[in-house]
Specification:
heterodimer, A: three-stranded antiparallel beta sheet, 15 helices, 11 strands, B: three-stranded antiparallel beta sheet, 17 helices, NagB/RpiA_transferase-like (chain A), initiation factor (chain A), translation initiation factor activity (chain A), protein biosynthesis (chain A), guanyl-nucleotide exchange factor activity (chain A)
């Protein structure tokens, strides 16, 4: 039986994390960035690996899957939680395969030949016990954590390759990745940024004040003026909440309009997204894709009696199809949207797509 | 061709040197295109006509500067310019005959008389040349000049001052603050400006009267008041003096808020009616006629036009439709209310945008009628558009190149609707058609008070001190232009036309007025 003291400490931490997730998603609690969520999830998973008693890799994977399902159910729109869980599962598989001595490449590729000759491997193989597995897995998770801490800097370092002087760059809403990206370029180049405020949350205002304090010439425009101003814009650089498996985006609302306007004027659309935002979801599920918040942001209660006769919608996210995107900049470099499926197969194992 | 050359030589009667020169010139002429030969024959014909009319030398002198301007304007005139240069050389030896050749040359140019070719570029309005200091000086002088010396008080029309940091792309436009209306600079009582106009100016600048139909109707009512209070001074004619009286009022209103295209057309109509009053009319009769004209204008161009447009649009609304409207257009609201009364079953989605939030007014009006409505902000339009079957938009003006000038955000809605293959219908009365052309929303636009963008959420106002931050600018555009390929149909009181037929309607209208 695992030590009672250690287990309650762990469950406390997990519960605290879950309630934080539930509160944060409604827009009323403290808005945390995805990077922080990813780091906290990974730290929590490391703690689970360290403290929970498990005998074989299969057990560990079961435990993590169970906790992971609870965590993503707490806030389904926060996909970084699910992504980190899948990454850790992949790490476990890799470490297991390395301990067994077989090369990872052979296990990965599902060729017809393999299917015919071997037949029915997977499940049983994870039952073997290796002493060094725990240490290896924890070490690999630590590497993952270091990678997560460096993502924003890695992306910002690529800024000078993409921004030339005297450019007019447009962005929407507030993204910490894009903020760091632009500030890094501003150290050496002079350019002008136009920020669309992204009603009703108006996060663009924060972005604009932060950028202008760093010496970047900034202009705030309303969402309605996006197409009007687009003809003078040289590049559109945005952040996103999730990168979907087909190369499309799930980004803050108003981004689809921005992407269409950019396409109409043949302006390149660059998405700065770190790798932990890549999710194996597809945008087909109509009922789970959109998230709505309270419509009082759109039509406040002070409007009076018409409220009872009117439907008001306040969606948070927008779907942007991959045809409208020119380039993805991530911490491992730049990619075209058509390459995303390949990156996904390197990060996650196909059996983990469904937690 | 040789005959012509010989004739030329004989007529000029030049000596050997110039003959040799004429020879060379003829060779060059032969190598030139046929256009030259034609013009030469025309020249001869007109030369004969001119000889019959016997114009004086002064006419020639007067026509020379016209020639130079007309030259630059007409496209095929470079060849003629070369000819003229040669003729000027011949002219130095023989004055009078060269005068004859010079004259027909000028008039044999494009068949249109030179007067019409002169100003190719019309005078630019001052409100889009704010970055030019000369223009500002001229405007200040003009406002000073437009004053009356009633009761020996000289008052000038005040000029409204810019406010706040202007985004560099728009430094040629004016940006006012709503908190500093123009009327604060006027002394009370103002002897220059009629109180109805002062009130109107204040209503415009504070946004109390907004929307192009509302502004035009308010303007016409104010002018009716002005006309009924007007008395002709003793040795002046009503038709001329009244127009001069109206000029300072119009400058004042322009300073309060730049005039819209519909207001411009209404003013043109009034001025024409006033100048067409025959001088033998008594003052009372003239005033009655003018008031009648204004009533007719409002009744025909605005009220009846709305009825006609509603009738045609109702054919386009089917049962079960989901119609998207943007902002508050009086015409579109009228159409929807009429359609609902006629028994069509549809529901409406009202799209709104910050900072004006005019859609809430439209929402109130439609809900009061009993139409079932949905309300979203413009950033959610790509979420809601798959449900929509038609988009109805109102317009502020229709430009001569087919572009639709309307509230900012309209072009965005048309763009997204096009991407989802939803038809876009624009409803516009013909008195809003204007002869300007514009391709983007920068050159001629209106900048509203930038402080409107500031919002307080969760107790925090992010942009509170935006004036102190050195590199931060807020942009509050009022209008934008929609390209004609986003618009599928324009519904006017003359019928349903495509966007590209606007200059045809303008031409027909101008012929009617003449």
């Amino acid at each position: 039986m695992p030590g009672p003291y250690r287990e309650t400490d762990l469950t406390e931490k997990v519960e605290a994390f879950l309630s934080d997730l539930k509160r944060g998603g409604s827009g009323t609690g403290p808005l945390r960035g995805s990077a922080e969520t990813a780091r906290e999830t990974t730290a929590l998973l490391r703690r689970i690996t360290a403290q929970v008693r498990w005998s074989s890799a299969g057990d560990l994977m079961e435990v993590i899957r169970k906790e992971g399902r609870r965590m993503s159910a707490a806030q389904p729109s926060e996909t970084t939680v699910g992504n980190m869980i899948r990454r850790v599962l992949k790490i476990i598989r890799e470490e297991y395969a390395r301990s067994r001595g077989s090369s990872e490449e052979a296990d990965q590729q599902e060729s017809l030949h393999k299917l015919l000759t071997s037949g029915g491997l997977s499940e049983e193989n994870f039952r073997q016990y290796f002493t060094a597995l725990k240490a290896n897995v924890i070490e690999a998770i630590n590497e993952l954590l270091t990678e997560l801490e460096g993502t924003t800097d890695n992306i910002a370092m690529q800024a000078l390759e993409h921004i030339h002087s005297n450019e007019v760059i447009m962005t929407i809403g507030r993204s910490r990745t894009v903020e760091a990206f632009l500030k890094d370029a501003a150290r050496k180049r002079k350019f002008h940024v136009i920020v669309a405020e992204c009603a009703p949350f108006c996060q663009g205002h924060e972005m604009a004040t932060s950028l202008s304090k760093d010496g970047i010439e900034t202009t705030v425009i309303t969402d309605a003026a996006i197409f009007a101003v687009m003809s003078r814009v040289n590049k559109v650089i945005i952040g996103t909440q999730t990168v979907l498996a087909n190369g499309g985006l799930r980004a803050v609302n108003g981004t689809h309009t921005l992407a269409l306007a950019a396409k109409h004027h043949s302006t390149p659309l660059i998405v700065c997204a770190p790798m932990f935002k890549l999710s194996p979801q597809f945008p087909n599920e109509e009922d789970t894709f959109h998230k709505f918040v309270s419509p009082h942001e759109v039509l406040p209660f002070t409007e009076g009696e018409i409220l009872s006769k009117v439907n008001v919608h306040c969606p948070v996210f927008d779907y942007v199809p991959p045809e409208l995107i020119t380039l993805f900049i991530s911490n491992i470099g730049g990619h075209a949207p058509s390459y995303i499926y390949r990156l996904m197969s390197e990060l996650y194992h196909p059996e983990d797509h469904e937690l | 061709m040789n005959r012509c050359v010989v004739k030329d030589k004989r007529r000029s009667g030049t000596q050997d040197s110039s003959e040799g020169g004429a020879d060379k010139k003829d060779n060059i002429e032969r190598e030139k295109i046929e256009g030259k030969e034609l013009t030469k024959e025309e020249k001869q014909r007109l030369r004969k006509e001119k000889k019959q009319q016997k114009k004086g030398k002064e006419k020639k002198d007067a026509s020379l500067p016209q020639v130079s301007v007309a030259e630059t304007a007409a496209p095929a005139s470079q060849l003629k310019a070369e000819r003229r240069a040669r003729q000027e050389a011949e002219r130095t030896s023989k004055q009078s005959k060269k005068g004859d050749t010079g004259q027909p040359a000028t008039t044999s140019k494009p068949k249109i008389p030179p007067n019409e070719l002169q100003p190719v570029v019309k005078r630019l309005p001052e409100h889009i040349q704010v970055d030019d200091p000369d223009v500002l000086k001229k405007l200040a002088k003009k406002l000073e000049r437009q004053q009356t010396t009633e009761n020996s008080e000289i008052q000038k029309i005040p000029r409204r001052l810019d406010y706040g940091y202007k985004v560099s792309l728009f430094s040629h436009l004016l940006q006012y603050s709503r908190k500093a209306p123009l009327t604060q600079q006027l002394s009370i009582p103002s002897a220059v400006i009629h109180p109805a106009i002062v009130r109107l100016g204040l209503q415009y600048s504070q946004g109390i009267v907004a929307g192009s139909n509302a502004r035009s109707i308010a303007l016409l009512h104010a002018f009716k008041q002005v006309i009924s209070d007007y008395t002709t001074p003793s040795n002046e004619e009503l038709s001329r003096d009244l127009v001069n009286k109206l000029k300072p009022y119009i400058s004042f209103l322009n300073q309060c808020r730049p005039l819209s295209a519909s207001m411009g057309n209404a003013i043109k109509y009034i001025k024409k009616e006033i100048s067409n009053i025959p001088s033998q009319f008594k003052e009372d009769d003239a005033k009655k006629k003018l008031l009648n004209c204004i009533e007719c204008f409002i009744e025909e161009k605005i009220v009846l036009a709305a009825k006609a447009i509603a009738k045609s649009s109702i054919e386009k609304i089917n049962d079960g439709d989901v119609i998207l409207v943007y902002g508050c257009s009086s015409l579109v609201n009228h159409i929807l209310c009429e359609a609902f009364e006629k028994g069509r079953k549809f529901r409406v989605i009202v799209v709104d945008s910050r900072p004006r939030l005019e859609g809430r007014e439209a929402l109130r009006r439609l809900v009061q009628k009993g139409i079932s409505c949905t309300y979203v902000l413009i950033s959610a339009v790509s979420y809601i558009l798959p449900e929509v079957s038609k988009v109805f938009l109102g317009a502020h003006a229709l430009l001569a190149n087919g572009y639709v000038m309307s509230r900012v955000g309209t072009s965005q809605i048309a763009l997204v609707a096009k991407a989802f293959n939803v038809p876009v219908l624009v409803c516009c009365e013909t008195y809003k058609f204007c002869e300007r052309v514009q391709t983007d929303s920068f050159v001629s636009n209106e900048l509203d008070d930038p402080d409107d963008l500031i919002v307080t959420r969760k107790g925090e106002t992010q942009l509170k001190d935006w004036q102190q931050v050195p590199r931060l600018g807020l942009l509050n555009l009022v209008y934008d232009v929609t390209p004609p390929d986003f618009v599928d149909l324009v519904i006017t009181d003359l019928g349903m036309i495509p966007c590209t037929s606007v200059p045809v309607v303008l031409r027909v209208k101008n012929v009617d007025l003449l």
